[in-house]
Amino acid sequence: MIDPTIQAVFFDAVGTLLFPRSPVSQTYAKAAAKFGAIPSDELIRHAFREAFARQEKQDFRDGWKTDEARERGRWRTIVGEVFPETNADACFAELWEWFGQPAAWMVQAEAGDLIRELRSRNLVVGMASNFDSRLFGLVEAFPELTPLKDHCVISSDVGRRKPGKEFFAAVAKSAGVPAECILFVGDDLRNDIHGATAAGMQAILFDPDDRADGGPRIRKLADLVTV
């Protein structure tokens, strides 16, 4: 399925190779309960979506600029808006620490075999994510992902988030090949697919629930290398 012109394959992290071990809403609820809040799961999901969307709009207005301080500030604001009745600083600190630990995450079941297969074909294989420096530790912690550590592009390190063109320029620099020779795989249409194609890369949507309409997509990561 991979075009023979492709020399490098880069994957998004969360939602493509990495997944929270427990639903985010449940993790948020457990943290909030320690500080006196007991909101419903539905309320958390709704408040989270609204707060996250407001932060996305802000980043869009700012040209997708980011750094470690911005990422930490973004999530502090989201937690404060989801749980306005709690000690937001303490609740945020607990959640920030938790999502930096390997115990909070699991690797997509096919990831290890797929990465080995792609590398056996002499392809550059990497990860490119709108995460922060905590991701470097997670990559080191999971044996399936450690082969990606030399080509791990993280927005807070680059200074721009996906779908910003500067982010994808950093991906091409890490790959060491022209943008048109890179295949980007991710689960987000705007950030991963539209961002990558606007930068001149090829892109495939990881769509395990078959929700998207049209365009190159796969439901299983292994489909990248099956005929």
What does this structure look like?
This protein has 227 residues and is an alpha/beta fold. The mean pLDDT is 93. Helices cover 44% and strands 14% of the residues. The protein is globular, with a radius of gyration of 18 Å. The chain has 2 domains: 8-17 and 108-224, Rossmann fold (3-Layer(aba) Sandwich); 24-103, Orthogonal Bundle (DNA polymerase, domain 1), CATH 1.10.150. The N and C termini lie close together (6 Å). The protein has a 6-stranded parallel β-sheet. Strands 2-3 form a two-stranded antiparallel ribbon. The protein has helices at residues 24-33, 41-61, 68-82, 88-98, 111-120, 134-141, 155-158, 165-175, 189-198; strands at residues 8-11, 18-20, 105-107, 124-129, 152-154, 182-186, 202-206, 217-218.
List the SSEs and their pairings.
Blueprint lengths: L7 E4 L6 E3 L3 H10 L7 H21 L6 H15 L5 H11 L6 E3 L3 H10 L3 E6 L4 H8 L10 E3 H4 L6 H11 L6 E5 L2 H10 L3 E5 L10 E2 L9
Parallel strand pairs: 1-4, 1-6, 4-5, 6-7, 7-8
Antiparallel strand pairs: 2-3
